[in-house]
Amino acid sequence: MTGLNFIGAGLIVIGAGFGIGKIGSSAMDAIARQPEASGKIQTAMLIAAALIEGIGFAALFAA
Hints:
This protein is mainly alpha-helical. The chain has 2 helices and no strands. Helix 1 (3-33) packs antiparallel against helix 2 (38-62). It is elongated. It starts with a helix and ends with a helix. The relative contact order is 0.16. The model has no long low-confidence stretch (mean pLDDT 92).
């Protein structure tokens, strides 16, 4: 692996972590505003986080 591959892999991991963190933050804000919808919000949050993580892994293997 060249140095650029390591930089790309690092950016992929940082981007995926930022995306999942943003989803978690937004979900907590939404649950605080509408506690009765927490089940639907958590389900959507987990699905979105899993998709981001999957794309991150796929990009990491491609780098």
